[in-house]
Amino acid sequence: MYLLGRLILRAIKIHKKLQNVNDVKVITIIGARPQFIKASVVSRVFKQCCESVEEILVHTGQHYDENMSKVFFDELGISKPDYNLGIGGGTHGQNTGRMIEEIEGLLLLEKPDWVLVYGDTDSTLAGALAAVKLHIPVVHIEAGLRSFNRRMPEEVNRVLTDHIATLLFAPTELALKNLLKEGIERSKIHLVGDVMYDAALYFYKKAEQKSKILETLKLSSKEYVLATVHRQENTDDKHRLSSIINGLSQSSVPVILPLHPRTKKQLNLFGINIGTPIKVVEPVGYLDMIMLEKNARAIATDSGGVQKEAYFYQVPCVTLREETEWVELVEQGVNLLVGYDENAIAKSITASFSHRWMEGMYGDGEAAYKIVNEIQYTQL
Ligand code: UD1
Ligand code: UDP
C-alpha cells in the first residue's frame, strides 16, 4: 500500500516539474496527544514528497508532560517543533485566547500560504481563528465529525473550524454528509479517509518489534481489559467518574488504565480510590498503546481515537459516552455505547461481540498522500 503511495508521489513530482508548481508554505498547529500522532503521518509525506512545500510545525504546548508530548516526537519521528508556545494547563478561554494571540504573531512573521489544523481541540480552533482573521486559508484534517452535543468543548471547536476552513478533509462518508447538511460547499470538501488508519498501518509493525509493554506489565494476550478515560463530561462530574470506576472494578480480569493527567487530577480532587482489578499506569507512548490495544480482550474508552483503533485491531469496544462521532462503528455492532452506567459497563466489558471488518470504512491507508496532494494543487 505504501509502495503505491510512493508511486503516486513520484508521479506527482514529475507532474509538478512539468507544471512548474509554486512553492507552498504551510504552518501546522498541533498541541494535544492525538494531534502528534495524526501529524506524524502527514508531516512524513510532506518531507518525502515535496521540495516545494515547506512545513513549519507549531506546538501550542496544550499537552506538555513528557509522556503526553515528547514521547510521541521521539518515537514517531516527528521533527522538533519550530515553535513551542508553552500554553497549557489553563481554562478553555485562557488557552484558546492566549494561543490565538501567539499564533497571530507567528503568522504575521512567517506569512504562510496555509494554516493546517487537526481535529477538535482548543489548539485547533485557536489556529483556525488566528489564520482566518488574517485571511490565511485553513486546512482542516478530520473535518465533519459531529456528536451533536454542543456541551462538549470539542463539538464547538470542530463546528467553528469547519465553517471557517477552505480545504476540509473528511475521514468518513458520514462526515462528508454532515458538512453538506450544514451548507458547506462540496468543492471545499475531500473524502480522503482517516489519517489515524494510515498511522495504524504504518506503526503497527514497529510497535510489534519495539514494545515490551506486555512483558513489563506481566500481561497475557486477551486476558485483560484496556481502559482510557479523559472526556471532560466524565472526569469533571464526580458521580459519572465514580460510576465508571465502579463499573470497571467489577471486571473478572485486570483492567489496565493508562491515566490521563486530567483524570488523575479529578480522581484526587473527588477522593475516588482505585484498586484491584484496575491497574493504573502512566500514559504510555503510541507504540506501547498499539500493543495494549491489540492484545486486550476488550477496550473501554471515551477517547475518539481509541474507539477506531479498537476497530483496526479487531477488539470489542465499549464506549463510555452517550454518543459518538464514529457512528459507523456502532452501526456495525463493534462498538457499544454504554455511557457511565456502572452495571452496563460491568456487563459489557465481559460480553463478547463478534467483529466485522468493513473494507474502506476509514479509507485505504493513503489519506496523508491525498491530503498533501490536494494542498499542493489547490490554487489560491
Ligand atoms: C484535550 C482535548 C480533547 C482531546 C484530548 C486528548 C480540548 C478542549 N480537549 O483534552 O479533545 O481528546 O486533549 O488527550 O482541547 N494536563 C497535564 N499535563 C498535560 C496535559 C494536560 O497535567 O500534558 C492536565 C492539566 O491539568 C490540564 C488538563 O489536564 O488543565 C486538561 O488538559 P487540556 O489539554 O485542556 O484538555 P484535555 O482533557 O487533555
Ligand atoms: N494514546 C497513547 N497513549 C495513551 C493513551 C492514548 O498513545 O496512554 C493514543 C491512542 O492510541 C490514540 C490517541 O492517543 O492514538 C488518542 O488520544 P486521546 O484519547 O488522548 O484523544 P482523542 O482521540 O479522544 O481526542
TrEMBL record:
| GO molecular function terms attached to this record | isomerase activity
Q: Gene3D superfamilies per the record?
A: Glycogen Phosphorylase B
Q: Does the keyword Protease apply?
A: no
One Pfam family matching this protein: Epimerase_2
Q: Has UniProt tagged this entry with the keyword Isomerase? A: yes
Superkingdom as given in the UniProt entry: Bacteria
- Which keywords does UniProt give here? Isomerase
InterPro entries in the cross-refs: UDP_GlcNAc_Epimerase_2_dom, WecB-like
Residues in domain UDP-N-acetylglucosamine 2-epimerase? 52-375
- What family does this chain come from, according to its entry? Belongs to the UDP-N-acetylglucosamine 2-epimerase family.
Q: NCBIfam families from the entry?
A: wecB
What is the name of the protein in this document?
UDP-N-acetylglucosamine 2-epimerase
* Source species of the chain: Cycloclasticus pugetii
